[in-house]
Amino acid sequence: MYKSLLFILLAGVVACNSSGKKSVNTPDSLLSHSASVDTGIMTEGAPPVNPEAVPDTVRIEGDFNGDGNLDLAYGVLYRNAMEKEGQDEYVIRFSNPDIKPLVTGFGEIRLINEGDLNNDGSDDLSVYQAPLHGCTYVMSSWSFTKSGWKQVTDPWLVYKGCNYLSDEDLQNRIVLEDGILYYYQEDPNDEHMTLVKKEMGVK
User: Could you report the per-residue pLDDT of 81-125, keeping only the tens digit for each?
Assistant: First the structure.
């Protein structure tokens, strides 16, 4: 009787650890494997026919790790919204496997190559990201280091998110002049939403 019970117990353990067991896809596991990436580039210079339709994937080029070679950065949809009113989640992957993915979280994104903002010899990038509700978007700038991605500046708000902004508009939101970094932001107290130039500290 004892031997029969031991045999049944061992059989159960082997079955539970068999290769046929399904793995659960978590964000970390999705980031660790290579995925089929839509490399379509967003090149629209004017408002699209449907302003609500922002591509799931955007692509920019840059030397993001300072090795002298151009890399491709792809903004990729990697998990659909869990709820009807929720948002999809996005991650930025790179053509160079040595550059770690940058998880941006919830909300559609567009990418901007900002050049070298912090004088470390590599290109930095900004992420223009949709909010959960409303028309106030968020921009954040990032730099790749040996320990991974870090924010170069504090995130800041773009109040005209419901109006289409071209790639050129987004590119001109941050400027580096005489070693000082500035950003342009709408004045929410002005009915014309005039852009105001503000100094931005670099981390």
Answer: 666 666 778 889 899 989 999 988 888 889 999 999 999 999 999
pLDDT at 56: 60
Count of the separate structural domains present in the chain: 1
C-alpha 31: how far from chain center: 12
Q: What range defines the domain where residue 150 resides?
A: 36-44+54-165
Q: How far is CA 158 from the centre of its chain?
A: 16
Write down the pTM of the prediction.
0.72
Write the burial class of residue 104 (CB in 10 Å: 0-12 exposed, 13-18 middle, 19+ buried). Answer: buried
For residue 163, pLDDT beyond 70: yes
**16 three-class SS:** helix
Q: Which of 165, 138, 171 has the alpha carbon at shortest distance from 154?
A: 138
Q: Establish if 203 belongs to a structural domain.
A: no
